[in-house]
Amino acid sequence: MKNLAFLKVAILLVIILALTACGTKAGNPPEPVLLAQSLLAEQLDVPVEEMKIVSFEEVEWTDSCFGLGGPAENCAAEITPGWQVFFDVDGKQYEVRSNQSGTIIRSPQL
Fold first, then answer.
1. What's the whole-number mean pLDDT along residues 33-62?
2. What's the CATH code of the domain at 85?
């Protein structure tokens, strides 16, 4: 009976650790996220050091404009792999959407 209880606790701990490791909170951001950060810093004219990466995740956008195309834009209706990143700059949140390499970014706030 004690072995069964120990096994349940061990399994629960493994599940919790696995879920924690899968989170999107910024830890060691991949290169595309850092490139997007650099491009946003340029657009905002702020040093990268003053930007905090809040979270990031890989996504598949429904079009080539990362879901942010305007009425006058031609956006290819194709699945476009990329990143969704949230930054904090002086207390203001910025969402950045990018291509898979992080070299093209768009933000609904800009």
1. 97
2. 3.10.450
C-alpha separations of 85 from 49, 73, 103, 110 in Å: 16, 23, 13, 14
pTM for the predicted model, two decimal places? 0.74
Burial of 102 from C-beta contacts in 10 A (0-12 / 13-18 / 19+)? buried
Residue 82 CB burial class (10 angstroms; 0-12, 13-18, ≥19): buried
Q: Tokens 């951001």, residue?
A: 29
**SS3 state of residue 95:** strand
**pLDDT digits over 51-73, tens only?**
999 999 999 999 999 999 999 99
